[in-house]
Automatic annotation (TrEMBL), chains A, B:
Domain FAD-binding span(s) in chain numbering: 10-324
Superkingdom field: Eukaryota
Gene name per UniProt: Kmo
GO BP annotations, alphabetical order: 'de novo' NAD+ biosynthetic process from L-tryptophan; anthranilate metabolic process; kynurenine metabolic process; L-tryptophan catabolic process; quinolinate biosynthetic process
Compartment annotation: Mitochondrion outer membrane
Cofactor: FAD
Protein name per the record: Kynurenine 3-monooxygenase
Originating species: Dipodomys ordii (Ord's kangaroo rat)
Catalytic activity entry: L-kynurenine + NADPH + O2 + H(+) = 3-hydroxy-L-kynurenine + NADP(+) + H2O
Length: 435, 435
């Protein structure tokens, strides 16, 4: 198919969030006629939207996707580099565990700014259009049609050649996959919820070291803090819902913080802490797995709609962005032929998205309970050492996931092999220590 | 609540299959106003419906539920007792492994007859009504309303105090649970499909020993046969879909049966075998798990709608029937108060339904590959021996599941403990054998 043919094909993207907007850029760049339908108002003009995390960690996979549509430099310039974890112990002691080499870092990015930049980028393509305030009411992939409800409240049928579902964890598009023959599906809420709090700037400067992801690991729960460009930090408290439910009064909250996060109270401020704590209830976290991402050559899911994951590896957005990049690479390989690309996208990508889902669930335990053990620090040092002497043979899991495009499921396979080496070293290390 | 109050409450049961019809009997018996909406025509007048298994194994749990509505004797009189497994080896040798003691058996029952009997039983209650040919199009539990589409094709709103979803594995009622806060859900198809074949009577008599469940275990696949009242057997071939797909011609099918089930060919008949094989495609099998069976006090799921399981423990119908019985017991305990019964039903019943789901998946491997090993036969004998000398301490898993109402999840716990004993005995047995 040459580009003039491609131009005539119409693609509807459901959802104008991060993955939807990025995907629209990729597809518009290929000369398709692209229409995004987004249920909310334009975030560039509307009041801020609550209920989603405020900032995100951008790493290599996400950057490569942004690079492919020429947006990497702009986005990176608006991020705050984080070169390692800064662990806050109960006593207030802080220690650093680097993420990788001295030149490696992840970026703390504002969700809202990134989404704005992506929407503006989409609209620069004359063959792309974003319809805000349009809710999907019916999705008929076989007929190549969607029905949307705009501000005029009159249902409108729109035809297309392909529907791309980027409508997030609670995807309406995905609900049409449920009766697909032999479609396996699971959705699992973890017992933890999350809540966002803010550490404001102190005398116009960052109140803590800015170039780190701060972690307060407390075994069954934890708090983290990511720096923002405007010199504040956004803290996220992760805790089982039944623990959240025990904190009913201002005093409960202050006592709890005094007991577990005493160094954070002066940083957040007592009044703001109590006020923010009761502003919104704790939000749930869901992990979703599908055994197929496509319906024939009519419909494909990407991002959270295809594989919502828990946030503990900082890969949710990165995996979603890599979906778009992988799909774009397949469109090159199969010359824009949907009937080839869609099944291949499911076949190729699902093992990777399932792998990062499992790794994120694994890291959920690691971050809150292992990160402050001596063995964790020893292992991280050991990994760095082994990586330094055998850089292509031995790559730490975090490095493979965060600073490479090694396929997620291959990273897991290599990690299992490397763990055998660790295990041998651990026994020797324990023996040394006990001498 | 006294019975006059109960009488005024209206319950809508969605689905008039086995569980829906039985449930309606239980609820009508409690003096509620009960309305069943069933999408299909009345099976008592319509042509036979294909696509579901023809016969089922009724065991203790199912019988206890039928007993509670006074239907046990009638149903049992129409079943064929099966006292054990009859294993057909590749060489044609047959050996028997009893299910339990001499007086214990399961019953091969016709799905269609049982369903007819249950529907007739419902209609005997003046306060119950069955609406056939009515498809559920909308379910609004919070408003206490369903919208159904009858033969006149005009959507009709019906109000009620409780909606009971008994609409099977692909439940429409359940789809309204998907956005319930923190609702975990999974659906998993197994790689195997199933296909039904028939062994007709031979000279007016059963062509094989009637009082057994016949099994042809062949490791990755298997065939079973259950006796019918009219002296035929219904065979079910379980095999991975990709193996089914390899059998494209009559010769492929005959060669396959000649290789793996040679003794069955003269019983089924070459012509009928080939004809039936290509009549319908192999059917999928799905396992479904939900983390909640109820929505507030408005809606509850039972049977396959709540927990479709694979058929390898013969417990699908029995578990569904026990759901109704457990719910009935809770209605006694909580004096017909839905707001108490529904949450308690979820809390109490889910561990059991999840346990029988896992056991059925486990038996899927056991039936097709372990059942013909020496170790399996040794273990069954050992279990019978231990059960005989310690009848209340040591109960074989099969007995607990099939011939008792020990809660499924407790049966699993006891079984794990008993397995430790087995494991010790196994080592001794192997040592003896190798001497």
């Amino acid at each position: 198919m040459d580009s003039s043919q491609a131009e005539r094909k119409k693609i509807i993207v459901i959802g104008g969030g991060l993955v939807g907007a990025l995907n629209a850029c990729f597809l518009a760049k290929r000369n398709f006629q692209v229409e995004i339908y987004e249920a909310r108002e334009d975030i560039r003009v509307a009041q801020s939207v609550r209920g989603r995390s405020i900032n995100l960690a951008l790493s290599y996979r996400g950057r490569q996707a942004l690079k492919a549509i020429g947006l990497e430099d702009q986005v990176v310039s608006q991020g705050v580099p984080m070169r390692g974890r800064m662990i806050h112990s109960l006593s207030g002691k802080r220690s650093v565990i680097p993420y990788g080499t001295k030149s490696q870092y992840i970026l703390s990015i504002s969700r809202k700014n990134l989404n704005k930049d992506l929407l503006t980028a989409v609209e620069k393509y004359p063959n792309a259009k974003v319809h805000f305030g349009h809710r999907l009411v019916k999705c008929s992939p076989e007929e190549g049609m969607v029905t949307v409800l705009g501000p005029d409240n009159v249902p409108k049928d729109v035809t297309c050649d392909l529907i791309v579902g980027c409508d997030g964890a609670y995807s309406t598009v995905r609900s049409h996959f449920m009766r697909k023959p032999r479609f396996d599906y699971s959705q699992q809420y973890i017992p933890h919820g999350y809540m966002e709090l803010t550490i404001p700037p102190k005398c116009g400067e960052y109140a803590m070291e800015p170039n780190y992801l701060h972690i307060w690991p407390r075994n069954t729960f934890m708090m983290i803090a990511l720096p923002n460009m405007e010199k504040s930090f956004t803290c996220t408290l992760f805790m089982p819902f039944d623990e959240f439910e025990k904190l009913l009064t201002s005093n409960d909250v202050l006592d709890f913080f005094q007991k577990y996060f005493p160094d954070s109270i002066p940083l957040i401020g007592e009044q703001a802490l109590v006020q923010d704590f009761f502003l919104l209830p704790a939000q749930p976290m869901i992990a979703i797995k599908c055994s197929s991402f496509h319906l024939k050559s009519h419909c494909v899911l990407m991002g959270d709609a295809a594989h919502a994951i828990v946030p503990f590896f900082g890969q949710g957005m990165n995996a979603g962005f890599e979906d778009c990049l992988v799909f774009d690479e397949l469109m090159d390989k199969f010359n824009n032929d949907f009937s080839m690309c869609l099944p291949e996208f499911s076949r190729f990508r699902i093992p990777d998205d399932h792998a990062i889902s499992d790794l994120s669930m694994y890291n959920y335990v690691e971050m809150r309970s292992h990160v402050n053990s001596l063995w964790f620090i020893f292992r991280k040092n050991l990994e760095r050492f082994l990586h330094a002497i055998m850089p292509s043979t031995f790559i730490p899991l975090y490095t493979m996931v965060t600073f490479s495009r090694i396929r997620y499921h291959e990273a897991v396979q290599r990690w299992h092999w490397q763990n055998k080496v660790h295990s041998i070293m651990k026994h020797r290390w324990i023996r040394e220590k006990n001498k």
